[in-house]
Protein 1
Amino acid sequence: MRVVGQDGRARAQMSGKKRVIIVGAGLSGLSAGISLRRNKVDFLILEKEMEPGGLCRSKKRGGFIFDYDGHLLHFKTAAGFKIVNGLLKGEMARFSRDASVSFRGFDVPYPFQANLHALPESLRLECVRGLKNRDRSLCQGDFSSWIQAKFGAGIARHFMLPYNRKFWRYPLNRMTSSWTGSFIPVPSSKKMLSGASRAIKEPLGYNSSFWYPAAGGIDVLPRRMAGACGNILYGRHVSGIDRERRVVRTARGEEFVYDKLISTMPLPDLGNICSGFTREVRKSFRSLRWNSLVVFNIGFNGGPFNSRHWIYFPGKDVPFFRVGFPHTFSSCAAPRGWGSLYAEVSYAPGRKPDVKRLRRELLDGLYRTGIFTERSRICAEDILNIQYAYPVYDHAYTASHKLITSCLREDGVILCGRYGGWNYFSMEDSILDGMSAAERAVKNA
């Protein structure tokens, strides 16, 4: 392996060893690095920021710890739990989800579709009729008709359709349901109908329980991972990739030669800095879709201090689709006796909102929904604009993703993680995908 500086001279030479370059020190990149280190594979991580974590980071503001967004650990596998628990050495707290849907002044326990008993009678009966009369043959392969087929007209009209329109900012009939998996709970008909008359005690959904660091913010995890990984160069913004020569260039003028490249940078950005794609592949890159987020982190005192972990808002009367309350699961999130929240507002790329105006609308919404009252006093704020939030699974996604992945694989480039692999991933998914990418890099070296 050689590294070439601005003066064109080789600054390091390691002959006879396979070198893997990892772009990005987020969860998936760090996980890949840890796996390669354990297998004694020569690797180097290039990270554009001056700290690890990507979007899984935290900020300190006036005695509050704000995560970049709502980051909670959900484990679907024993392997995922073992990895994280080993890194945090048992320093995690476990919580049973306490979440709800704010619907026309009613607080409906989440998931909405299993708690129809909390609705007023007329709406409850409408949702029950929809469940009983739904026609599953109407599903046409798009997300909108999938919702109708799974939950019926009532639940679709009152919650599923308005919430997902607000969340995705993309036509639901142009999306597929391939991403839903464990992310949208689909209880049995019997359970949903039972939930129309009484509360169901059984936990439903992949996030029915979650874990969070016992001390500090979510950035405790990537910092531990970075310590276990090593071999990270910070402040290295990757500005170009020559796939033919297998060279990565940084904005500093450095060049790093690789045998295998694991990319966790957002896939649309990767397409912009790589050379030599065919017209068809470039078209596939251009077809990629996503939504964006503005996240408002607010620290406050004076109450009221919501006891829910988070609340969903499907209505058009407020700009946010979800509000979470870190003080309910972390004693470090706010000074003792004070509260903190994050409010998420999505928008379509190219339609960047007026943040000042949006802040006024958001605060108005917090007061109108009772989250804030005249007693509430804002003590700290942080506003984050996330360009790439959730990849959109539209009807072009599968073919485009397959073509891009295949093309890059031929040149030793392995896509990895939520944004590098362009997947709807949880934190656990990203960590496990990093391990998988490392295995593929070694296997195909």
Protein 2
Amino acid sequence: MPNYREKQKRCIYSIALLSTVIVFACLIPGSYSHAQEIFSTVKITSSPNPVGSGARAQGMGGAFIAVADDATAASWNPGGLMQLERPEFSIVGSFFQRRKHMTSDLHPEENGQNNKHREDINYMSGAYPFRAFDKNMVVSFNYQRLYDFYDKLDFDYNYRGYLSDGSFYNVQTKTRFRQQGALKAFAPAYAIQITPRLSVGIALNFWTNHLGYNNGWDQERKTTGTAFIHTRRGNLIKYTMEEFYKEKNENFEAFNTNLGFLWHVSRIVTIGGVLKTPYTADVDRKTYAVSQTFPPGRGLPPPVPYRKNENVDIRFPMSYGLGVAFRLSDAFTVDLDVYRTEWSKFYAKSGNGKKTNIAGDPWKKSHPHDTTQVRLGGEYLFITEKTLIPARFGLFYDPEPAAGHPKDYYGVSVGTGVMLGRVVLDCCYIYRWARDVKAEIPDTKKDDAQHNFLMSMIIHF
């Protein structure tokens, strides 16, 4: 009998040890598929496609490449800066709210809603037109907040299975994820008029940490759970688990350029084009993780925190767009833009040389497609004796990169403004949404609703 009891104890301890290893495998970052999918290397929460800024442009649905006639032109098409006739200063503020509703047939415990909101300065610029060497020219200095990383995700995730000896296990987890940060650039720009109908321009984007703001993002995840192991002999073993993961990405340093042209084909038709060059960013990443179970179990060492500091290279791809604007009257303008981003060439390379793509998968595992945006917008000016009151509208298709086919996102926008002497005030509302697209959690779909409100002020000198 003592030998049998001793064997039984060893068996139970072996099962406990194996179950703890399973628990660790499920919770340690990157070691389990659902954790890897949820927390990819670079998780951009705003639209990842590089677009410009400004309440006027966004009120037209972001269809602005062939218009680009205000101080935000450097972010859309630097060639459009040539249309500025007086010195201008602009500032753009934004309020963003995102609501995600998760649904899963296989894991109904995930069903629920997550909300996040954020307000910040989105853009600032100063532009100065002048004449030199018998040519009209414009210089401008710009600050743009291009990529946001603010996100919140709370969900339950349960899974079950069998061990090699036939024992059955059931694991119930709760995860809390938070992410914050942004990528910003300082961009001096220059435009020159080649002919009365053709102008070209360039913006130099310095993505740097040395201008008084932090360029980077942080993420934090806490997972707690309970594991039940039902042995073949009818014993029930219970473990509670806790895992904490924190990642800090800072000192984002890179450089690229925006090249643009604007061609006034006729009094009615204008064509604009922009090319944003690819760039590789250098990022300092600090990782901290710790996992533990209760009770610890015989033969298991105490939990040792995992710490790692490394340098990560992130390759952002080339993007380019073409726009056609139709000036149907002095009061009515319509613009159509098509814009493409080569997300298939994006990668993040960690210190050990391993690459992941934009979907967070190993470089060769999945092949995200390039994305093509289509944007249509218009502006109608109500002209009064003392001022101009614009009415703006926009429609757009703005897909997000994913493993395989992009996620289909659509949007609408409306906007207006007023001119008060030398001051122009603009505002717009943008609604961007997706229905039944793949969520960050496996076997889960989501409805994603994003509300964005922008307000711009432009001062003419």
Protein 3
Amino acid sequence: MKKAQIVFVLTIIVFSGFKADKPAYSLFDIEGKSVKYKKMLNELANADVVLFGELHNNPISHWLQLELSKDLFDINKENLILGAEMFETDNQLLIDEFINGVITTSRFEAEARLWPNYKNDYKPLVEFAKDSGLQVIATNIPRRYASVVNSDGFEGLEELSDEAKKYLPPLPVAYDSTLSCYKSLLGMGNGMGPHITPNFPKAQAIKDATMAHFIVKNWEDGNLFLHFNGAYHSDNFESINWYLKQAMPGLKILTITTVSQKNVNELNEDNLGKADYTICVVDNMTTTY
């Protein structure tokens, strides 16, 4: 064997060793079994709605969101719709104007109420959508109205103008206080500060209800709506998922969550069953903020 060939083989062996010994993440199905990305992709491509639950500062989440968007676009083409918790419903016009080239990048970023990590974590998705001619749907309630619920409960929304209510789901909003996603929040006072009141879970529920409403409003048969949200808002098939099922029981919804563990070769017991697919990321992964 020639020297160059030996070096090449050794390089492959060394690289493979690093890859096997230092995986950044692993994929698992709902039963905690290891699954290939391709298998997950093929199943997601046949869903009506995919809820991609991220850890907001996790680079693997954001990288896979972009890769998944590209791969689903290759399969579903113009039938793919992107939507996100990170954009509030009263900013939809700005998003549309940017996607359609009416306003510049700098004008969009100056006027939209973007998350501080937008440029690192979400801008690549929006730019991809713009280049591909895809819709990006703002699904989250304007934060000022979530604050109304936190202060005054759902009843506070009834006092808003008809114009303001265009950015909300239809009122009154259904609410199941027994769902673990909301019930657990009332026991988080020690970790969340002294301001946890019975309205706090409702302020989270109105976000879920709004996101579900604008997903359904912008979905039609034959579409795939890929939605990005914090894992809390779709874990355990509650939150957004629950509201989607109330609105359209026949929707085929698949969920993805992101978890962080020291060992990514096997899911910890407390991470089992959170979603149809779990991205398990090594817990010393560098964060985006």
